[in-house]
Amino acid sequence: MFPRIDLHTHSDCSDGLLSPESLVALAAQRQVELLALTDHDTVSGCGPASAACAAAAIRFVPGIELSCQWREREIHIVGLQLDVADAALLSHCSTVLARRRERIHAMTQRLSRAGLPGQELAALTLKAALPTRTHLARALCRLGVADSMQQAFERWLKRGRPGYVSAQWPQLATAVQRIVEAGGIAVLAHPHRYTVSHGVLRELVGEFKAAGGEGIEVSLSGMGPADADRAAALARRYELAGSTGSDFHEPDLPWRPLGRFAKLPDLITPIAARLAP
């Protein structure tokens, strides 16, 4: 039996629903042995999660998932085992938080012009410590504008819809640099979700590696066999370690269960092997 690990999870410090402590309690129920908290653009939950993991005898990895831009596309980089007190990283997160809040204001203004209660949506969304489109989608559901999260995105929030505003994230090389300079390991998140050709994806991975990236997610909830094979091929081609995780956000999403078995394809070095004991 392979050890159960999860190196990609989210709490309510970003767009998850569980507190860091509740997330760790669920991880303990699922017999997770190695857990990283990788909230979007914040490390605020790592302290509580670390303490809860210590009490539950779970090995904890402080992490983050940084939003960045590459050729006008939004890309996510997971940082593992970083210094959560690093000044440059914290400054970077503060800058991104300000951009997130500005984006929510702009999106709710557009929704107001479309006839929706924009001010009320803004008030609900901006209650979050780190507001995201996910929080805005939840607000649309709460006010009865949408019947589901999927409908909220499809009707109002995705690209080309009335409430969409493009994000202005830092460049990919900057995000990787922030992670590396904070002592962390940079991992390219969910490569199968980027809607690009195989050739462009190879270019992305090559530039990520050149910027200092060390890993790529090879085993992730929602990856089909073809996606996993493609990610593994990229890992081998660019000599990147393989990471595994759930991208867990909430208990009611059965296709993203917390806790993953760390079984990786042949000739893939586990990213966990590079983490300090």
Short description:
With 277 residues, the chain is an alpha/beta fold.
What do you see in this structure?
- By secondary structure, the protein is of the alpha/beta class.
- The chain is 40% helix and 16% strand.
- The chain has helices spanning 20-29, 46-56, 87-113, 118-125, 133-142, 149-157, 172-181, 198-211, 225-237; strands spanning 4-6, 34-37, 59-70, 73-80, 185-188, 215-220, 241-245, 260-261.
- An 8-stranded mixed sheet has the order 7-6-5-4-3-2-1-8.
- Helix 1 packs parallel to helix 2 (46-56), helix 4 packs across helix 5 (133-142) and helix 5 (133-142) packs across helix 6.
What's the topology here?
Elements (H helix, E strand, L loop, with lengths): L3 E3 L13 H10 L4 E4 L8 H11 L2 E12 L2 E8 L6 H27 L4 H8 L7 H10 L6 H9 L14 H10 L3 E4 L9 H14 L3 E6 L4 H13 L3 E5 L14 E2 L16
Parallel strand pairs: 1-2, 2-3, 5-6, 6-7
Antiparallel strand pairs: 1-8, 3-4, 4-5
Total count of helical runs of at least 4 residues: 9
Rg, nearest Å: 18 Å
- The SSE order reads EHEHEEHHHHHEHEHEE
Query: How big a fraction of the residues is strand?
Result: 15-25%
Mean pLDDT: 95
The dominant shape is: globular
Keywords:
277 residues; alpha/beta; eight-stranded mixed sheet; globular
